[in-house]
């Protein structure tokens, strides 16, 4: 049964990559909105979790506003998928016109320093498009980490897709990824990590919208170990096909404290930068899973 399901999932994603990128852009966008609205009306577990998460981000929102936000959130989430399916077929020159990044100079100056740069992002808008912007507009290849998906063939599709955009993709499982990332940074390279959710035992507890969540320690540890600049970045959608973002100021390594204390302080600073971007554009935060620790404790 599991093998049959895996083949079905892989086949559906393969159909998306093969089919959606051939559709005219307005048709793909309309299809994404239709799929999002159907999923939203069904009020499944993912939609309810999205609304629960949004209720923390916008605590004064009543039921009607939360429902409107979750509908906009599902449309934003499906826009991510429709765009991602089409990215390999897009003209790379569009990355410089479709994406506008505030304080882009912060990233350019950090790269020019030769220290190596870690860009940490939350699940906002389209982080793959931001990666394509880095390779196509800034002209810098980068290394990232991807969670191993099931079936394995689906993970292979994701890796091949992201590598076609100029990314080096390392598997999240196993201990080799950290060492490879450190080597890339010591050579002055760019590392980009989606870093707003970590349910592993190594995650760092942070205060996030008034409650405790856990986020990855990796960005802060890499910055301490290699001397690379740690730059949070946040994104949001404009009218299609526009996407906007901001490169936040560097999160510096504290002068005092143990390694654990420095890691905690730096991860909290990253979380604060994420929170500022999410609060301004909550509909573009694609967090359809449990995040806060007290939500995790609700599980039987």
Helix content: 40-55%
Q: How many whole angstroms does the radius of gyration measure?
A: 19 Å
Order of helices and strands: HHHHHEHEHEHEHEEEHEEHH
User: Order of strands in the sheet with the most strands?
Assistant: 1-9-8-2-5-3-4
Helices, by number, come to: 12
The dominant shape is globular
Mean pLDDT: 90
> Structural class of the helices, strands and pairings?
alpha/beta
Largest sheet, in brief, is: 7 strands, mixed
Strand content: 15-25%
N- to C-terminal separation?
26 Å
Strand count: 9
Low-confidence stretches: none
What is this structure's SSE topology?
Elements: H1 2-20, H2 25-42, H3 45-57, H4 63-86, H5 95-98, E1 99-102, H6 104-112, E2 117-121, H7 127-138, E3 142-146, H8 152-164, E4 167-171, H9 176-186, E5 190-194, E6 204-208, E7 211-215, H10 218-226, E8 229-237, E9 243-247, H11 259-280, H12 293-296
Parallel strand pairs: 1-9, 2-5, 2-8, 3-4, 3-5
Antiparallel strand pairs: 6-7, 8-9
What does this molecule look like?
The protein has twelve helices and nine strands. By secondary structure, it is an alpha/beta fold. The protein is globular and about 50 Å long. The protein has helices at 2-20, 25-42, 45-57, 63-86, 95-98, 104-112, 127-138, 152-164, 176-186, 218-226, 259-280, 293-296, and strands at 99-102, 117-121, 142-146, 167-171, 190-194, 204-208, 211-215, 229-237, 243-247.
């Amino acid at each position: 049964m599991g093998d049959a399901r895996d083949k079905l999932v892989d086949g559906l994603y393969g159909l998306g990559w093969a089919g959606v990128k051939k559709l005219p852009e307005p048709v793909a966008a309309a299809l994404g909105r239709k799929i999002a609205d159907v999923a939203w009306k069904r009020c499944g577990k993912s939609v309810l979790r999205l609304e629960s998460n949004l209720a923390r981000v916008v605590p004064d929102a009543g039921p009607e506003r939360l429902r409107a936000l979750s509908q906009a959130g599902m449309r934003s989430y499906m826009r991510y998928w429709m765009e991602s399916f089409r990215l390999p077929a897009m003209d790379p020159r569009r990355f410089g016109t479709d994406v506008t990044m505030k304080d882009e100079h912060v990233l350019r100056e950090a790269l020019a320093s030769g220290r190596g740069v870690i860009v940490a992002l939350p699940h906002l808008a389209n982080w793959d498009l931001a990666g394509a912007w880095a390779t196509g507009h800034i002209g810098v290849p980068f290394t990232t980490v991807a969670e191993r998906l099931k079936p394995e063939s689906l993970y292979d599709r994701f890796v091949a897709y992201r590598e076609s955009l100029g990314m080096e993709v390392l598997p999240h499982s196993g201990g080799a990824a950290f060492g490879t990332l450190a080597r890339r940074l010591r050579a002055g390279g760019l590392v980009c990590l989606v870093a707003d959710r970590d349910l592993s035992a190594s995650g760092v507890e942070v205060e996030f919208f008034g409650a405790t969540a856990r986020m990855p320690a990796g960005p802060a540890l890499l910055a301490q170990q290699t001397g690379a600049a740690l730059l949070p970045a946040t994104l949001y959608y404009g009218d299609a096909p526009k996407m906007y973002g901001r490169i936040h100021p560097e999160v510096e390594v504290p002068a005092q404290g143990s390694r654990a204390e420095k890691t905690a302080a730096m991860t909290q600073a990253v979380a604060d930068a994420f929170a500022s971007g999410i609060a301004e554009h909550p509909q573009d935060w694609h967090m359809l899973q449990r995040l806060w620790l007290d939500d995790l404790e609700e599980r039987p």
